[in-house]
Design brief:
single chain; alpha+beta; 2 domains; 8 helices; elongated
Amino acid sequence: MFNTLFSTILSDGSFTGSEFAVATMTALFCGLLIAVTYMIRNRFSKSYITTLALLPAIVELVIILVNGNLGAGVAVAGAFSLVRFRSAPGRGQEITGIFLAMAVGLATGMGYIGIAIVFSVIVSTLNLILNFTKFGAEDKSIRRLRITVPENLDYENRFDEVFQKYLRDFTYDEVRTANMGSLYKLTLSVILKDNVSSREFLDELRTLNGNLDISLGRMIESPDAL
């Protein structure tokens, strides 16, 4: 029984109407499962969710039609290679979802119905667990601090006393010039101490940087970051 679950329903590159229907329905079911799972605690667009839901069935149809036909397989590979030139870069999790949908489509197209269902359930469940446990999530206590200083101000060690008073930790990430070199823009990753006032922190910094621009906000992940 267990071995039967992981065997193919197709043979010798041919298929019947009922086998095609079973493979297609399985691909659609797995695609919907992947799409619904991705919608939980993730940023998404309607277009991307629709793609996840339908991609397994589309790949399944391509694979089941070219099964055993070398010439058709080469032609399809060439067609798929053109798609990537119209593909926008995405986050790592989005790319993983696409690969999962394609893998399920390949499995159902080759008749491995049991593998497609089991693999979809396992990966989707693991995805939910990782999302709910916030596995690998960035520390929310880290803030992004940006300070603008005039070019004639020696910013090195200038703010250390204030930092030690209000911050638990800080790291200089970037220093760059602006306004034709008349300004320096400092970017730091900081962690505020417990129960400190961010307003008082910024007020003390303003007295040291000539009352130029200062911003304090949370770290924002780039939508295209991997």
